[in-house]
Amino acid sequence: MKMSKKVWLIVGIGVFAIVIAVLFSTYSRQAGEREQLENNLFTAQALLPKLTNQKGDLENQLAQAQSLLDRSRAKFPKVLESIEYGEDFFKIAYGQNLYALAGGCGVDLTRLTASLPTDKKVGAVTYSVSSFVVAVDGNIDDILKFIDAIGTGINYKLTWSFQLPWSVDVKSVNMNIASGTATAIINLDIYAYKGE
Fold first, then answer.
1. Is 80 exposed, middle or buried (CB count within 10 Å of its CB: 0-12, 13-18, 19+)?
2. Which residue among 13, 79, 162, 184 is least crowded, i.e. fewest CB within 10 A of its CB?
């Protein structure tokens, strides 16, 4: 069967209309995507100066924090010259030996504060000196035993002594006695030999 020119013209127009519709749809979609990309680019360009300023502010804050850290580190004592000395000193600084001594004497150590060590020269010898405030509770005899153990290095049920590698100078003792129990606040300096 042969189609007439009129039918071919209608089919051609239909195909042409479909092609135009597909092309228009594709173009519209791409135009929408392009508009979205342009909006995203505009937003990114608007944010760029703000983010650049924030980056500068954060870099300034980092520099200030680093400077503060460096100043704080400078306040701490320098590394101790002897490993043995350092270990022994920090046992004292953290109160391990004082707590053990208090337990050996039968008193409760309730407070321990320490100052940063300072250098003190006696003749040709340099010592590192730290001041401590020690508060203990217990009966009077045990507190006196504890004070004696600090000052003389006598061991009460312990296997170590305060006498080496440091020496202790008991500066003052304030005792409050009430109904058979007592509280004592002891101020002392610990001298540790630093070497030459």
1. middle
2. 79
